[in-house]
Specification:
It is built from four helices and four strands. It is α+β, with helices and mostly antiparallel strands. The chain has two domains: 81 residues; 77 residues, General secretion pathway protein M, EpsM (Gyrase A, domain 2). The longest helix is centred in the first third of the chain and has 67 residues. Strands 1-2-4-3 form a four-stranded antiparallel sheet. The protein is elongated, with a radius of gyration of 40 Å. Helices cover 57% and strands 16% of the residues.
């Protein structure tokens, strides 16, 4: 094993060439990092200008759409004035309509919870006709909640089937006559 000997009485000599090379390397690295920072700042400034230009374009499009909307409203008002009799006649036909498919679908949507899936739905084009549906759900409490909501409407359960992960039900009910 070699012995290390240190003489603490003498002052160490600095190698000036190595020191100059290291100082030059550090200076070059600082200059390089400064250039990279300036390039990134310039790129961010370009992005900010593009974002401002896009916002201006969006504002112009919004103004154009607002003007178009106002023009269409004026057209509708003039059309209503010129064809008021025809509109009244059409509204009276709508008022005489016996039932609405949309209101029946809305009733079913309000009765069903989010876990209920309607697989098949049959609506008849008659007043107070029965609505037939095939429904599936993953949990029994959701199914019982649906039964409870539909029970006042002459609920009739045709079949219930339980698979591994869901309950399948064929049922029918009569929706009361609705007012439109």
């Amino acid at each position: 094993m070699n012995k290390l000997a240190y003489n603490l009485a003498r002052s160490p000599q600095v190698d000036r060439l190595r020191f100059a090379l290291r100082a030059a390397l550090l200076f070059l690295l600082a200059v390089l990092l400064g250039i990279l920072a300036a390039a990134n700042l310039a790129e961010w400034g370009g992005r900010a200008r593009r974002d401002v230009e896009e916002a201006g374009t969006g504002r112009r499009q919004l103004q154009t759409l607002a003007a178009e909307s106002s023009r269409l409203r004026r057209e509708i008002e003039t059309w209503k004035k010129s064809r008021g009799g025809q509109l009244a006649q059409a509204n009276s036909l709508i008022a005489r309509k016996s039932f609405s498919f949309v209101s029946r679908l809305d009733f079913l949507e309000n009765a069903a919870s989010p876990g209920i899936r309607v697989r098949n739905l049959t609506l008849e084009n008659k007043r107070s006709a029965r609505i037939r549906a095939s429904i599936s759900t993953r949990t029994l409490p959701e199914l019982f909640a649906l039964y409870k909501k539909l029970a006042p409407n002459e609920l009739a359960i045709a079949s219930e089937t339980q698979t591994q992960d869901e309950y399948l039900v064929n049922l029918s009910f009569r929706m009361p006559d609705e007012e439109i």
